[in-house]
Amino acid sequence: MGTALYNEHFGFRERPFSLSPDPEFLFWSKVHTRALSVLEYGLMTRAPLTVVTGEVGTGKTTLIQELLRTIDDDQIVGLISNARGDRGDLLRWVLGAFDVAAPASADYVTLFQRFQDFVLAEYAAGGHVVLIVDEAQNLGVETLDELRMLTNINSGKDELLQIVLVGQPELRDLIRRPELRQVAQRVTSTYHLEPMDLGSTLNYVHHRLKHAGGTGKEFTHAAICHIHEEAEGIPRMINKLCDLALVYASSAGETTVEIGIIKELIRDGLILKPYREPHVLTNPIDGSGEAAE
To answer: Which parts of the sequence belong to the AAA+ ATPase domain (predicted)?
Structure first.
């Protein structure tokens, strides 16, 4: 029995645990609220660089989408995902994010001048340019430093370009490297999106069930606790487990997901956990680029 039929079985209007990022389903846990506040603070204060990190599946992309929904009309936003390459490639990514045309034969100086002209023209028209780079941990040291150089475009008193870096935890360690100390010095605000605790997971599951038209009681407390343990508090993994659990329950004619169903789908090998090397975050980045004590 597929997901469409479990919707009918449980009376849902739509899948409560779709894996696609959907701001309509965004659950405002404490960590997600703080992360969005940091992003909004960075934009409000015209911070040159804002950094938000988190493990895969913690909701970073959904936060970006929510930020884009609420951004001011005078802010011209460009979004880059999974950019790679040298500094010339970076400028083409950046220009493409803002739909600024660039000749294929243009050299680095020409590309930089074209972007600078774009930023200055938007500023003269009362606009403010914001570049959001998702999966920024994929950028190398030279590319990150090149992004920092872009923030030097200014009018003498105003920051005309803001950059928001979003990525996995290793992005923070990358920025702390000695050769990127000037990048760290430009970081005005930074936040690490931690996995949810058990209380947040319970509220998260209830929230999504109700938002989809359910009662919020389709899962027992014990089942959600086991889901939280298996998912390690990662929203994307919680969604996978809950979605499959609803398929199992509906195929068995059950109206409630018990802990036994969760254990059964785990035994059946339907969930492949990604391997993650142990990662210990060092102290937060402060305004001077040094690790705060």
So the answer is: 46-190
The structure tokens listed for 161 are 């370009």
- pTM of the complete model: 0.82
Count Cα neighbours of 157 within 13 Å in the Cβ-side half-sphere.
Answer: 0
Phi, then psi, of 42 in degrees rounded to 5: -60, -40
Domain ranges of the chain: 3-18+196-267, 30-193
CA R_g for the chain:
22
DSSP state of 250: H
Whole-number average pLDDT of the chain: 86
Spatial distance between the Cα atoms of 160 and 120, rounded to a whole number of angstroms: 7
- In terms of Cα–Cα distance, which of 14, 10, 3 is closest to 212? 14
CB atoms within 10 A of CB 268: 10
Residue with tokens 């914001």: 130
Model confidence pLDDT, tens digit, residues 236-265? 999 999 999 999 999 999 999 999 999 999
- C-alpha distance from residue 160 to each of 62, 78, 120, 150, 184 (Å): 26, 14, 7, 10, 19
CATH architecture under which domain 30-193 falls: 3-Layer(aba) Sandwich (3.40)
**216 in Cβ contact with 209 (< 8 Å):** yes
Q: Which two tokens stand for residue 105?
A: 């034969």
Q: Please say whether the beta carbons of 22 and 61 come within 8 A.
A: no
Q: Is the pLDDT of residue 119 over 50?
A: yes
Asked if 72 and 186 count as a contact pair (C-beta separation under 8 A), the reply is no
Residue 32: how many other CB atoms lie within 10 Å: 23
Token pair belonging to 282: 């060092």
